[in-house]
């Protein structure tokens, strides 16, 4: 079982808001129907006990706790229990085993030790049960016998279609379906709403849920604590909630993806449904990757690849629990979202000059703008707020706005009316422990509500510090008025950045040219490192421009090839054992005539043989030298989770030092290729610097798309591609690959 005390889900007020474009070309997947697991109409609790019938027991059995939760929520389906010791538990019929239940149930809840779980679920599947929630730990996350147990569950789910939540989890809580198959105690009065929460961690599922309900007044449609994902996966849960009418926002904490090949497809499906998908991905650092492997048996992907997948799927990527909570608070606030029409220019009103400085810094760090106020705004404020000297953004209201109740509304209205501002933010202390009459937040709440009611501009609030209970007398009226609360300038500005990024993604997704076609599969190629001619022939199939190249076996052949293609040329040794040719004297540049070619051929053969006596030399490549341009690297690496990914960056001999690389998940559109380039620190070099001409960025984008198509077409048979350098010629002259390594599995 899950060890240690189980956190209790705290209750809140009453149900609140309940539960929306152009499709992209992508892979299509068959999705399993998770209804028997998430919205069952009949449930069997395996492991409940009569000794747990007394609710005052210090450690109530989890099976009994589930029964109490079902009662609390008013589950109106059939409930039975399974325990060979009893004929009845807590008023419900009890059977010795699952096979003895007169009619098969949709789902069983396994509250038994881990060693019994595989046999239990296999017998349940034979009895016609379709799903199970497994609380127990001690599976893949511990290795050895645990891994063997998990393999049996994975096989059952894969081969029989049996749906499993867990193991090592808290389970499933369906609020509107009144089906809480959940290990945590759930008091009455749970705050229902439009947010579905999926958490691989059981403990964090209750931590996040409580913070959303109590400190943001955000209600939930579901909570899924999925643990090791032996059956149903994060991707499948997301798909279910994309199709769920009660869910408008999907929030996820994940350590590792089990079906990453489906993530982009379901993310795009969420975007098309206008349902923001907000994910906190753990396991980015080397230390946390080790923790993830021992905690949930998950394999964490490389951080830059995960980030690329999130960007391309329109996934809102957050880096902390606090940012997750604030982002969910904003994206789920209908009144705020309806007034937001894009932009990342914020107006800030605070009573603290120090906070004004900090929020400006925080905004700059995340790419949010704090623009100057218009001259009209400054003039109006000077007129309406006599003797008030600060007319800058952020607006420092100083102690004056606390002393004179007329000042705060006028300053706020000035920001709302300013044409340079997209979103108004108010620094408001929401966890003030002082008596009500002394709390500054309470004093300003009514003025904020009044101003927002008459405005078409979105307004949000943020506190100076993170943590502590939020005053419900401030929280609830503001939320009802469409004014979300955030905590801390760092999280607030990051959340606004997330909102702007998502808006821009949706706008770009609906524009022409945003789709990426899915190329057909390529014929099988011979394994190993392809020779230069074979590699370049492959590139030509995908319209990747290459320099004219001929493999020569003698000085005479080299000279003839050079005479035919035209000078200047370059000679390079051809050997599968030599990756860095120049390091062993295997390259000769700028050869201008036949004599130079003959001499270089002989010199390369002799030098390489002396330095690499065991290397097999297949000849010497003769290649027409490309014109001057910007050297880039363009290639494919295979990620353990997402498969082939495209890498592009500033190339040449310093690529490993500079490490200025952008990543994309193929297939890619032209726009996605351009977005990759724009993320490079050295992107300005392509635009022309210090008298150099601008590079042919359009041709470079086309090459990126083509390499991505090559990767998708070759699929699993491709281990990697390294085009270094790819010369970006001046604008209008294209690009050309001059050196490449292609490895086939």
Quick summary of this structure?
This protein has 745 residues and is an alpha/beta fold. 37% of the residues lie in helices and 20% in strands. β5 (107-110), α3 (117-126) and β6 form a beta-alpha-beta unit.
What does this structure look like?
- This protein is 37% helix and 20% strand.
- The protein is α/β, with parallel strands linked by helices.
- The strands form 5 sheets. It has a 7-stranded mixed β-sheet, sandwiched between helices. Strands 9-8-11-10-12-13-14 form a 7-stranded mixed β-sheet, with helices on both faces.
- β8 and β9 (179-182) form a beta hairpin.
- α5 crosses α10 (321-331).
- The longest helix is centred in the last third of the chain and has 21 residues, at 489-509.
- The radius of gyration is 31 Å and the shape is flat.
- The chain starts with 34 loop residues before the first helix and ends with a strand.
- Mean pLDDT is 89; it is low at 1-5, 11-26 and 287-301.
